[in-house]
Predict the structure of Hydroxyethylthiazole kinase.
Amino acid sequence: MSELSHIASHVQSVASAVAADDPIRESIAQAVRDVKATTPLAASFTNFVTINLVANAQLASGGTAAMSFLADDVIATSAISGADYVNVGTLLPFYREALDRIAHAFHESGHKWVLDPVAAGIGTERTAILTAFRDVPPTVIRGNASEIIALDAMWGLADAADDDAAVTRPAGVESVDEVDSALDAAVRLARHMASHRADGTAAVAVSGAVDLVTDGRDVYRLPGGSALMTKITGAGCSLGGVTATYLAVADPMTAALAASLLYNRAGEAAEARAEGPGSFQTHLLDALWTTTPEQVAGSPIDRTSVR
Amino acid sequence: MSELSHIASHVQSVASAVAADDPIRESIAQAVRDVKATTPLAASFTNFVTINLVANAQLASGGTAAMSFLADDVIATSAISGADYVNVGTLLPFYREALDRIAHAFHESGHKWVLDPVAAGIGTERTAILTAFRDVPPTVIRGNASEIIALDAMWGLADAADDDAAVTRPAGVESVDEVDSALDAAVRLARHMASHRADGTAAVAVSGAVDLVTDGRDVYRLPGGSALMTKITGAGCSLGGVTATYLAVADPMTAALAASLLYNRAGEAAEARAEGPGSFQTHLLDALWTTTPEQVAGSPIDRTSVR
Amino acid sequence: MSELSHIASHVQSVASAVAADDPIRESIAQAVRDVKATTPLAASFTNFVTINLVANAQLASGGTAAMSFLADDVIATSAISGADYVNVGTLLPFYREALDRIAHAFHESGHKWVLDPVAAGIGTERTAILTAFRDVPPTVIRGNASEIIALDAMWGLADAADDDAAVTRPAGVESVDEVDSALDAAVRLARHMASHRADGTAAVAVSGAVDLVTDGRDVYRLPGGSALMTKITGAGCSLGGVTATYLAVADPMTAALAASLLYNRAGEAAEARAEGPGSFQTHLLDALWTTTPEQVAGSPIDRTSVR
């Protein structure tokens, strides 16, 4: 962030707990219910490390899964999938061209998709792939703070942003954790993505000790979850996959909130029974299956406006 | 199925329970015993989503596993493997040429293999790969009803079939479930495959609520199993892999029956203890390990002749 | 081994139990502690079958994981990783060139890495890849006996070895198990690798009923572990990955010993609770997490000199 944008900062509105009867809670509950009722297909182009957990998490959450890597295959499948999940964790030589074709096809058809910019900033090929998404952007981005910050830099949004876009950090308040360090970047990314969608909706989810979800106007903070999430591979990836599952039946903000909240509640339930990371993963999949729409929607949620 | 073939239909023989002393039961028990006694190698060219579960299921059933994707590697390994498993779930650009070489090499050496035509009908590359297998066909096919129907259509077997080949559905009886909708296709595929094997044996297994296995002359229906199989990824793929494990020690029909029955019994045992899809998968692998040859061979089995 | 080298054999020193206060035990305990305290990154270029278990085992042991396949990506990541793990189990067409670039880059920067020569000897492409590592060798090799023997043959070390290098088998003692059949090869490989490292250190670990670890001067034998390790896929691969995790904080011999001992202790703990291979894998990951530095370092260890 340039010095100028710091100078131009406005005070962010005070964060407040989302009320029990706030409409967002019913939207979240409805998304969870709709997935269980309709088993929507969310297709994935994802890394080889956690591809199995992504599919199993989508199934355990109530959806269905299909994975493919050929542009031909992915684009054909998008005709029957409600949303796609794209994760750039493990790259092969042909991915740059394939993902470019896929992103353009999704953009032209208006197909919704979630991007997981894993390891953004490492490797020239990954940077080329992620940079090329700028003008045909995803509907939702889910990543950790450093990935969100790196993607924002790749897309040059800080430089291009007007003053309002750069002023999302509470004045005089240092980032309370690593997630908040990505707040400006997340807001800029969400606004950029929304400006490229016909319906003007988009969302960015930053995963961490307290998850942050924003559509560029409101910022939601979601406390809770389990530290054991960092001791299994694919907690973040599978959260991204489940976000695509919810995106198949809901708007971007609702989908991102529902998925992150489900993961926090399921993570807590799994940790309570786990004896280590092996049993934690087993219990996590069970808990994705058993956690109710009411438990997800009844979670603690804080909201701040950055309009 | 054309109207003509409907008109030409003959009444299928009445399905009847396979007797306790039917020789097929001893063949099945022997296959299960032989795998546990000889730990045969079944090699796989399979998708990235469930490759780990395929290998673990083969090991838990008593066999050993080796996975590879280079034609060079696969063909070299086939010299020491009893059978191969080929699954077209996730394709890479070089697969079409590699799988063509592999299928021809298997055909020339008479090497037995199981094809899992995952997502048959989706994507031009997959269709090209599957179509090319027509004249160098596998020994066993395992798929769900829609995949079996799609493959039958790709191979043009309905058009080429003589009257007898097209008349396998009980007259006046609508398909009782989705599996039965693939009965004609399964019978045609099995007959086509058998006609390309030196020993004239082949089998097709259609997985569903009631599994169906046919060699083109007899049709076996296998009730039971667990609905949780559809809530983990790779239940079908790993069943295909275990079918290859049994095929390493038995004829195609026995192998397909033994594997499907093992999965039904293990699925029931796993469901009885599962608290969700995570623990179901863990219990399933344990149950593949602990289910006895007698439990597999003593399963309920119905048989109908379509000779 | 040629007849000449048999004739030239010297008597190997008598194996003896490593004392409780032997410095190697403190080195091992310190490596286990350092991993838990510093969560080092070990990056992997590994096969698709067990890539998930490798990552989860590294995390459960206290480290972190990153997997990639593009040379660009792997070399960029090596700037922030303490060591790398390379496994040639499942090959793709571009691997030969990528791995050649990677091995040369690691050699030039002195970056430490573990090679897992899975299926060494099968397939011309794998042989070409492994042969090319001869002059830019890894820091640690972990494999089973047949793989170690095959790699030694590929590198032509038996022919090139001087008399001393070929005389590591106890005179008049037949190999007590398959692992010991690889003793000569392991010693030759370790000496060859050490001669290519600036600090002259290297190690070879041969996994089996009794694991064998050597740096070319001392031979350690590590009894125990679980036979169920052979009934899940990836026990060996994930041991290789965890060896890289320890290599990020320790010398090659200490890293190889610590990882193999951790696996033996965790395997025993997992077997005690397992009801089959499914629950064994879950318990194994839990036990990698809960096994203490003292339990690892306090393991039974035998040592023989082959200097």
Residues 3-11+22-305 of chain C form a domain with the UDP-N-acetylmuramoyl-L-alanine:D-glutamate ligase fold (CATH 3.40.1190.20). Residues 1-11, 163-176 of chain C have pLDDT under 50 and may be disordered.
